[in-house]
Amino acid sequence: MILATAPIEVTASPLDAVLDTVALVLILVGALLCLTAAIGLLRFRDVPTRLHAATKPQVLGLIVICIAIALSLRSWAVLAFIVPIVLMQLATAPLSAHMVGRQAYRNGTLDRAALYTDELRASKETPPAAGG
User: pTM here?
Assistant: First the structure.
């Protein structure tokens, strides 16, 4: 037995169409930013430029994609998930890039001739004071 049901009418306002289009464009922009970060990791030759490519476009790409998700879903519950994601990314990306750069300096894999200023040289040459 087949039940006949009335078709469901979905009425979308022009504002919904505009917000969905903006979300689509933002997702494409965010994906392109993440793609440029990946290409930069493969193409650049030294640690500082790779760190630049890994952190700045990738973080901005994630933020743009999260904004697109918020515009597309238009819910306060979604913001409760998106805001901590963005805040954690903003907190951890610079910190991890700093630690990777410092470790590259200590290992000697960093081209020190390419540095304009070498602020770590003074801290590396002078031992820390005994007893704090």
Answer: 0.74
